[in-house]
């Protein structure tokens, strides 16, 4: 029978080699700890990538990003967008990922300082003290994450309800950090120099040590490569269409925008792809009776169709972040009535989306705008990027207050913040605006021929009463012809026949009057943070 080294050590305590000096111990620990921290970090990152792609669980990196975005003001937000353009989303996220790996490495030192293993050490199995420290790290990190990111946890990209998403995201955080603690504990042990006792086979002991270290190195490489692969996979799903807004063909904007041409704006790096079996619409808070709907149940509710134009608050005057669809769904009014209406204390309504986006609005004001909970867009089920399976249209409000991928509606007695309202973007009725689609800016216009000037005008749910055109830089104005609006909530198309009789440079302007009789303001204002105002202006040459 072979004698084990433990038995040898017990038999022959005098054979134990002398412990390292204090300085040598500290130096060796300090050198090995970041290696253990790195492999633990990479293992945790690979885990979060798998959970993200396989189960739609947000990664701590994204949760951190969402958290930061809500805590900066709109000025800082815009500066960040510009600094990182064209990688406004992936740039900061990559930095956050590297930062997290960095923190994981640094925590390796903290871990080594706490467990303070005497070197050289006897075996490969972590001592109780090391396990407990690693467990404390796991609990501390997940606890901190859950508290800090509490308001972000309710998102799930496959469409879990708010309650389940919160639970699953918290569990995900725990899993990531449990992997971190577990790998840190084992890897640090594996890397530490071991006692080679007199009487043991020195070559075998050396080989074992070498194998353990090679194992850690291989795991580092493997998880590192895995992380790169997952990042690649992640980027494949990247919502590169954010800000998409095609030009109208030949300067003629169709009254209804085809779904594929509807502008898109999203806060997300990857948009939700909701699994319809997991998804529910929940209604709760200060309402008569709360309830929950599957996609099928929802579509059995009485529905209406209406043309509604959406405009992003980031749309410049004359810009193209504006489109019109025929939306079909149930009105908010009908739905609330079905649930016994609002309780007397309800003052606000909150919409929660599966991507963690939420908005909150004064209830009575919103009800007066006749919002629609839509599941069809121009006769098609909502496309994924426009909010499948359900989005809310609140006519008269900028796009930011028209949540996509909605999963929960709650009546509350207070205002609840959200991404853009926290940053300080304006929320309220959108400004009357108009756009000149033709002739093209800086084009040549034929002298003496009839040229059509045309475009669109939009004033939210106030409708458009009149559009005027000026070809002399705003000195005189002519009334344009309008096509009948598709609804009170949609843009109108207008045109005016111009027959220039003098060659030269011309400045064309337009201005709209909304349904209340208020004329679009000439006051120039950029989009940030209140939405753009001013007249659209184009320059042409007549020759
Ligand atoms: N859940 C959710 N809803 C959202 C957003 C988002 O990022 N997430 N973006 C908002 C913004 S800023 C705009 S302008 C509109 C754009 O809607 P669209 O992409 O269908 O045109 O959606 C709004 N609703
Ligand atoms: Mo927007």
List the helices and strands and how they pair.
Layout: H1 5-11, H2 22-55, H3 60-70, H4 74-84, H5 90-115, H6 128-148, H7 162-191, H8 202-236, E1 281-285, E2 291-293, H9 295-299, E3 304-311, E4 322-331, H10 332-338, E5 348-353, E6 358-362, H11 363-368, E7 372-377, E8 380-381, E9 391-393, E10 406-412, H12 419-423, E11 433-438, E12 444-445, E13 451-458, E14 464-470, E15 478-479, E16 481-482, E17 492-498, E18 504-514, E19 537-542
The site of the ligand Nc1nc2c(c(=O)[nH]1)N[C@H]1C(S)=C(S)[C@@H](COP(=O)(O)O)O[C@H]1N2 has 19 residues, from loops.
Can you tell me about this structure?
By secondary structure, the protein is α+β, with helices and mostly antiparallel strands. It has 12 helices and 19 strands. The protein folds into 3 domains: 15-236, no CATH class; 249-423, Oxidoreductase, molybdopterin-binding domain (Sulfite Oxidase, Chain A, domain 2, Alpha-Beta Complex); 433-542, Immunoglobulin-like. A hairpin with a 5-residue loop joins strand 1 (281-285) and strand 2. The longest helix has 35 residues, at 202-236. It is elongated. The model is unreliable at 1-14 (pLDDT under 50). The chain binds the ligand Nc1nc2c(c(=O)[nH]1)N[C@H]1C(S)=C(S)[C@@H](COP(=O)(O)O)O[C@H]1N2 and molybdenum atom. The ligand Nc1nc2c(c(=O)[nH]1)N[C@H]1C(S)=C(S)[C@@H](COP(=O)(O)O)O[C@H]1N2 binds next to loops.
What's the main sheet like? 5 strands, mixed
Poorly predicted ranges: 1-14
Q: What is the chains' assembly state?
A: single chain
Report the average pLDDT across residues: 94
Domain tally: 3
Sheet-strand content, in percent, reads 15-25%
Bound molecules: the ligand Nc1nc2c(c(=O)[nH]1)N[C@H]1C(S)=C(S)[C@@H](COP(=O)(O)O)O[C@H]1N2, molybdenum atom
Q: What is the helix content?
A: 25-40%
Structural class by SSE content = alpha+beta
For the largest beta sheet, what order do the strands appear in spatially? 2-1-10-5-6
Radius of gyration: 31 Å
End-to-end C-alpha gap: 107 Å
What general outline do the C-alpha atoms trace?
Answer: elongated
What is the number of E strands? 19
- Number of DSSP helices? 12
